[in-house]
């Protein structure tokens, strides 16, 4: 006998938790589709030489390789042939480069699949997790207007997920780099300063200031102060965001370009009718070092800042330079749903949902079995999700089962109902019970389900 | 520069093929849910000692193992710690045993995920493919009525997939083994005979007959004839199925038990209103050797018998004996959707679908941009999937783009429409074009989409 258990670092859910998770996945997918994004799925494994062309040391150490028994036996010194994807961005780059001539650009795709990272085992850290990505990829160029469509999608997703108030925050790498230029911080030092400012949340202002004026960086105290003041800029509301950008004044050409891009994005969001309390500028956002080149996004839950960003991304200049000579600029975001779901559950915001089953068709006596089957089939044709009780049981037991399983309605036909051509329907959510004509049963149920949704 | 390419043995689709595939997946999932099955997902990898407890040599040779870089470096002589699932049945057994005390029995789950097998590379053979499984698992016992619910689900799935006429065929292992008993074939020899009869489709009757009477088996010619005659039994229609089962006469207790079980299943299917041309008995079906113990199912497309079974399964006595002392009998089926999709595409039955985007909101002049954004958002609120054209282009180019992308409707507001509070809508499927008041646009589109669905 082997003890049944999952490997460490994976999230496996009981059915009702899985239903709650699935509803979130479905909402994200429907919203992505409502903005015209097309579905893409890629294989879980890529050829190692294709997948690892772009990654540095840290990522590569986290990659899982896959080998069949035969390959294990023949294994030489090189890397195994197959590696599991560790994000959806490298597979997207490979996909777009491989199918370039079959795709229409701008190419708008969503991809919702699991990715794999050999993280150190730790609470809330997962080795297998869902990413829900959208990207718009241009050929040669991509209109900056797409920069504003992305936060409109984020907005729609989190409104529909209804997990609390949220703020989509953005910054612009050109604004940042232009600001550095203006302070005389150039080249490699920009990356180092950026990396340091990215630690503000974790280390706090004092520690970061000390590092900036310390031996390694050697910045003047006044320069450090200006960097920190810049990083403190956050807006509240649409007009405040515009005012704060205006208050930055003029800078280098790059600086002005970044600022004007943010202004255009803000205006477009307003034209799309996005609630203005849902977006803000936050000039402390940097998002890593070398990938993003334009706007960058982070999204936080207002009541749970400690969860950190729940949806991040930005604009990049060239998606697939390792695979094609074509220039493919893009903009996109990713939601790490497994970790988010885990955090929301820890915070008590999501939990077990109602069952995905709408109706339990009960069975009171064996003579009613064929009848219960026909009733079940009839309700299915009407679009309901129906479980049929296959064995006659006491009525109290059947209600108890439905209640524990989170099934809202029970439908029953005893001898009386069968003789009278009726069915007894019970709504376990409020105890309402009715005996109605057979051909109105589906309507009775549909009306109550609709009420709940509204 | 690395050549972008996928590993051999995977199926990667272009967006419009992916949309067609996704529709099939969604149909299967919705149908599974309409019969009250609950969703389960398991991690792609299991601990090797947990996954491989049950498998024989052939399967184990096909298993993929996963290792992070760190694990590769430390690798000893034993098997790697993690292995990718090669089906959804072993993970189900592990899941039910692990979560036994948190599940309600009979436990009805569906699971739609990819599985991995190191198959020899070959056209139409996949190393990564979707399985779409349902199972009902009982604790200690499982009512035989579930045996008939499974083909009702299969029936609903393939009616809705609308890929042509199909026949769900079944046999019963007790009938088979009881028939062998009656011929004096006992114990291990039953398995050998079963394996031989399973080759009838591939080898033909003459070759199988020769083997049965040959040295290894040494069956009497008359016994071989009776085995072959039994295997030839197939029914057409409900009454014919009952008549053919009755014509088998009486046999051993096991034989009679199997026959009566098939009769009960047939009667239940009739009570559920399943079209009788869609199911039949076929006494040649054996489905492997040691797993199934009761009813077994196969489903074929009437016009494409060469595709073989597109949905198979059956009843088993004990799901998880390697993981728990509890007795967990069950019944279930699996659809291998990746291979099925590939075959349907080869046969020209499925192909590229219409886009998942319903409407392209075009842009005729830059002054109309904010207006196009607002129109897009309004249509989204009405439940439509909308792509917004971000750059003003010639009208012919925009129609051409929508047409090539498979987007059915284009919505446009030029200067005239903006002044008049109207919008011009075009249905590319028939050329119909109308200029309507802004607040009726969504209704105009919805009416035409509904028409198409009906």
What name does the CATH topology of the largest domain in chain A carry?
BirA Bifunctional Protein, domain 2
Number of spatially distinct domains of chain A: 3
Strand content of chain A: 15-25%
Instruction: Give the low-pLDDT segments of chain A.
Output: none
- Biggest chain-to-chain interface with counts: A-B, 103 and 103 residues
Span of the ends, CA to CA of chain A: 51 Å
Mean residue pLDDT of chain A: 93
The biggest sheet of chain A amounts to: 8 strands, mixed
What's the number of extended β-strand segments of chain A?
Answer: 16
- List the quaternary state of the chains: homodimer
CATH class of the largest domain in chain A: Alpha Beta
- Globally, the shape of chain A reads elongated
Q: Name the CATH superfamily assignment of the largest domain in chain A.
A: Bira Bifunctional Protein, Domain 2
**Tally the helices of chain A: what do you get?**
18
Q: What strand order characterises the main sheet of chain A? A: 1-5-6-11-10-9-7-8
Query: What structural class should be given to the helix and strand makeup of chain A?
Result: alpha+beta
Helix content of chain A: 40-55%
Question: What Rg of chain A is obtained from the alpha carbons, in whole angstroms?
Answer: 28 Å
CATH architecture of the largest domain in chain A: 2-Layer Sandwich
Can you walk me through this structure?
The structure is a homodimer of 454-residue chains. The first copy, chain A, is of the alpha+beta class and 454 residues long. Chain A folds into 3 domains: 7-142, 2-Layer Sandwich (BirA Bifunctional Protein, domain 2); 147-316, Bira Bifunctional Protein, Domain 2 (BirA Bifunctional Protein, domain 2); 359-451, Rossmann fold. Chain A has 18 helices and 16 strands. Chain A has helices at 15-34, 48-51, 57-62, 69-74, 89-98, 146-161, 173-182, 187-197, 200-203, 205-213, 221-231, 238-247, 253-271, 337-346, 369-381, 395-405, 415-420, 441-453; strands at residues 38-39, 45-47, 64-68, 82-84, 107-116, 128-137, 166-172, 279-281, 295-301, 312-316, 330-336, 359-361, 386-388, 409-412, 422-427, 433-437. An 8-stranded mixed sheet of chain A has the order 1-5-6-11-10-9-7-8. A 5-stranded mixed sheet of chain A has the order 13-12-14-15-16, sandwiched between helices. In chain A, strand 15 (422-427) and strand 16 form a beta hairpin. The longest helix of chain A has 20 residues, at 15-34. The mean pLDDT of chain A is 93. At the A-B interface, helix 1, strand 1, strand 2, helix 3 and strand 3 of A face helix 1, strand 1, strand 2, helix 3 and strand 3 of B.
């Amino acid at each position: 006998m082997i003890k049944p258990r999952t490997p460490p670092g994976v999230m496996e859910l009981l059915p009702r938790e899985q239903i709650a998770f699935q509803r979130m996945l479905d909402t994200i997918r429907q919203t992505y589709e409502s903005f015209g994004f097309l579905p893409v799925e890629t294989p879980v494994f890529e050829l190692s030489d294709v997948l690892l062309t772009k990654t540095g040391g840290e990522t590569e150490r986290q990659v899982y390789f896959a080998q069949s028994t035969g390959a294990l036996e023949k294994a030489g010194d090189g890397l195994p042939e197959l590696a599991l994807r560790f994000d959806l961005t490298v597979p997207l780059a490979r996909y777009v480069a491989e199918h370039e001539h079959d795709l229409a650009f701008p190419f708008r795709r969503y991809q919702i699949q699991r990715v794999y990272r050999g993280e150190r085992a730790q609470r809330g850290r997962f080795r297998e997790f869902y990413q829900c990505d959208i990207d718009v990829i241009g050929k040669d160029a991509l209109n900056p207007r797409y920069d504003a469509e992305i936060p409109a999608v984020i907005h729609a997703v989190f409104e529909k997920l209804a997990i609390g108030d949220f703020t989509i925050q953005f910054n612009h790498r050109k604004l940042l780099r232009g600001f550095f230029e203006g302070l005389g911080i150039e080249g490699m030092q920009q990356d180092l300063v950026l990396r340091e400012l990215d630690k503000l949340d974790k280390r706090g202002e004092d520690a970061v200031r000390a590092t900036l004026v310390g031996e390694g960086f050697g910045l003047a105290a006044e320069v450090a102060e200006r960097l920190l003041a810049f990083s403190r800029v956050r807006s509240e509301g649409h007009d405040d965001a515009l005012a704060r950008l205006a208050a930055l004044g003029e800078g280098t050409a790059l600086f002005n370009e970044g600022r004007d891009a943010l202004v255009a994005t803000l205006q477009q969001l307003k034209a799309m009718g996005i609630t203005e309390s849902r977006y803000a500028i936050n000039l402390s956002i940097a998002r890593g070092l070398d990938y993003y080149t334009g706007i960058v996004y982070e999204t936080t839950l207002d009541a749970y800042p400690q969860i950190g960003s729940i949806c991040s991304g930005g604009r990049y200049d060239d998606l697939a330079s390792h695979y094609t000579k074509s220039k493919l600029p893009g903009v996109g975001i990713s939601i790490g749903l497994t970790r988010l779901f885990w955090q929301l559950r820890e915070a008590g915001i999501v939990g077990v949902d109602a069952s995905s089953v709408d109706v339990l068709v009960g069975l009171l006596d064996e003579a009613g079995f064929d009848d219960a089957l026909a009733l079940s089939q009839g309700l299915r044709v009407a679009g309901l999700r129906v479980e049929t009780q296959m064995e006659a049981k006491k009525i109290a037991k059947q209600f108890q089962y439905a209640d524990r399983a989170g099934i809202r309605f029970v439908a029953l036909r005893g001898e009386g109902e069968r003789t009278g051509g009726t069915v007894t329907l019970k709504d376990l959510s409020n105890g309402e019970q009715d005996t109605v004509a057979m051909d109105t049963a589906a309507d009775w149920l549909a009306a109550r389900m609709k009420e709940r949704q509204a």
